[in-house]
Structure formats: structure tokens, C-alpha cells
Amino acid sequence: MRIMVTGGLGFIGSQMVRWILEQVPDVDILNVDALTYAGNPANVEEYAHDARYRWVQASIADRAQLEPWFADQAVDAVINFAAESHVDRSIQSGAPFVVTNVLGTQVLLELARQYHVPRFLHVSTDEVYGSLGPTGQFRETSPLEPNSPYAASKAAADMVVLAASRTYQQDVVITRCSNNYGPYQFPEKLIPLFVTNGLEGRPWPLYGDGRNVRDWLHVSDHVRAIWDVLTRGKSGQIYNIGGHTEKSNWEIAEDLRAILGLPASVVTMVSDRLGHDRRYAMDAQKITKELGWEPRIPWQQGIRDTVAWYQNHEDWWRPVKSGAYREYYRQQYGEGNPDSGVRNS
Length: 345
Ligand code: NAD
Ligand code: TYD
Known about the structure:
Blueprint: E1 2-6, H1 11-23, E2 28-32, E3 53-56, H2 63-72, E4 77-80, H3 87-92, H4 95-114, E5 119-125, H5 149-168, E6 172-177, E7 179-181, H6 190-200, E8 204-207, E9 213-218, H7 219-232, E10 238-241, E11 246-248, H8 249-260, E12 267-270, H9 285-291, H10 299-312, H11 314-322, H12 324-333
Parallel strand pairs: 1-2, 1-4, 2-3, 4-5, 5-6, 6-10, 7-9, 8-12
Antiparallel strand pairs: 9-11
Helix pairs in contact: 1-7, 2-4, 4-5, 6-8
Bound molecules: nicotinamide-adenine-dinucleotide (NAD) and thymidine-5'-diphosphate.
Nicotinamide-adenine-dinucleotide is lined by residues 6-7, 9-13, 32-36, 38-39, 59-61, 81-85, 100, 104, 123, 125, 154, 177, 179-180, 186, 341-342.
């Protein structure tokens, strides 16, 4: 079985690549990743020379670059992780999000259809549903009310994927997951930013009043859910994935402070993110009822293990934060365009 994973040099995609190669026999992986600022070959270093793994440096928005890979290789499934993924960056500049997240998804879908790929799994997010008040949860049937440019681009991609199912009966499935945490997460996101800043003696910028709530899930539980949906999910369906772990950003900071033994003064209240969604919470009953999936890693264990991972992997995150790793890979593989997700040629 040959699986095309896109965005497999990023945080969740690389976890998926490692998980599949560890868990699934008789599989090989074609990892299509443009190597933007968020992609890092070190995330799958242990498989770099494995015959079952191959990385292709290409943008999912570039049909000409991608088509030979569909034409030459019999691809049995596509798992589309590739995306511009950071809300704050989308507030600065939304166009790259539309290029990769919307156009890229459309291009991939068309190629998958043209080359008769039996299944296309699109990795989406809870952010497409917008923001909740103090109560309630998102269901798969909740309306899409995205607020940030990132969330809007992900919602548009979901529409494009569903349109392919309805128009052409293309076999697609969509997963919408809550916030992930774990090893190899790029240190622009809340948890790795705070942990690594803490280890560097730098402050923790907490946006607004710090009371925004997210539902956290360990990344290994997420990729297991994706595998369950890929292999057993019903065509044309959407599956919510959540961790039953709602926490305010303030609570996250408290938990991290306790683990790292840092004083309250490490937290610095800063001005709020524009249009900051107040609360996300997932109703993930459907995937549990239909596929038997449930989260396995409790927050207290997952967050301790995650902090320990960053403590033990300074060799991974220090070059990422300093930009040294980008310089190294730029020399190895050529200039990537950090803003468009598309490699300059
Ligand atoms: P990430 O930013 O860590 O990684 C994205 C990867 O995609 C990088 O390796 C990057 O090089 C690659 N990429 C970007 N543009 C590309 C392009 N045009 N062509 C090919 N590759 C490209 O992201 P992540 O946190 O691992 O998220 C992966 C997916 O999961 C995204 O689709 C995101 O929307 C979704 N998601 C993330 C979370 C979360 O908490 N991180 C939660 C739910 C859903
Ligand atoms: P983030 O990790 O960017 O994920 P998302 O916006 O996709 O949920 O942010 C998680 C929460 O943490 C969100 O409410 C914004 C907040 N946050 C901060 O308070 N400070 C920070 O420096 C960052 C990056 C995020």
C-alpha cells in the first residue's frame, strides 16, 4: 500500500509518517512537503534512508510539480496535512493561506480523482466552526462560522472537498480536530513557545485576559484517529476529533509553570490577538460510536511527557528558534518561500 502524506515534515504530518512506518506493515510513504518555515526534515530523520519512505519537495498548489508523482506511483490514499497553520501569521498575511489551504487542496483533489486514488483524507480543524460561548460543543452538523483568515481558508477547503464528494462521488473523508500538543510542534504555537521560552529564561506572552479556552489532544491520539477514519470511515463523512480536555490559556500556563518550577512573573499579559476566538469544544461522539476511537493519553501525562521532550531535545528546537536549521536546509535543498508555501524555482 502506498500512501501520499502531504505536509509530512510538519508537526502532525511527521507524527503520522512515523506512526504509519512503525505500526503498519507493507506500506510505503510518499511525503509531499514544500519545506516552508514550518517543515523540518529532522522530524522524520530516523526514516530518511528507509526504503519505505520518500520525501518529494513540492507544493500541493503546483499541479505540474505534483502530477508526475501521481502518474508514476500507484497511490492508494492521500492524507492532506499540508497547510499554512498559524492563526497569527494569517492575521498578518492571508493570501498564502488561500494558496496552500484552498487552491492546494483543490489541485490535490483533482489529481487524486484523475489518477483514481481510492481514498482522500483531508485534515481539517475545529476552528472552521467559529467560536463558542461558555457552554455547548461543536458537532459535525454545526454551521461553519470561521473567524480568522486561517480558519476561513480551512473552511473553504472543507467545502471544496465535500463538493468533490457530491459532484463526482469522489471518495473523501474529513477530520476536524481540536488543538494538538506534543513533540516536534513548531515553537510559534502556545505550548512549545511557552515551554522553550521557559527553558531560555524568556517571558510567556499571554494574549488578552488569558481566559480563551481550547480543547487539547495529544498528537499521537490525533494520528490514530486519522488512521481509523482513513481505513474505516464512511465516504463523504466528517469526523470530529477532540480530547475532552478544555483548558483556558491561563490554566495551561499554570500547569506548565508547575512542571517547570517557574514563578508567576514569567507570565506577561500582552494585547489580544485580533478577532480572538473565545472557546472551542468538540463533541466527538460520532468517531467514538462509529469507529471506537477515544483519546488515550491523559492531559497530566501528555503535558509532562511533552515538556520532558523539549527539555531533552534542545538540539531540535534551538536551531528552529534561531533560524539556523532553515539556513542549513536552504543550502541543502534550495530556497523555499516562507510566505507562500511554494518553492521558488
Ligand atoms: P505545521 O505548520 O506544523 O506543518 C505544515 C507542513 O505543511 C509543513 O511541513 C510545511 O512545510 C508544509 N506545507 C506548507 N505549505 C505547503 C505546500 N504548499 N505544499 C506542501 N507542503 C506545504 O502544521 P500542523 O500543526 O502539523 O498541522 C497539520 C494540519 O493539521 C493542518 O492542515 C492544520 O490545519 C491541521 N490541524 C492542526 C491542528 C493543530 O493543533 N496544530 C489542529 C487541528 C488541525
Ligand atoms: P495557538 O497555539 O496559536 O493555537 P490556535 O490559535 O490555533 O488555537 O494558540 C492557542 C491559544 O493560545 C489561543 O487562544 C491563543 C493563545 N496564545 C497566547 O496567549 N500567547 C501566544 O503567544 C500564542 C502563540 C497563543
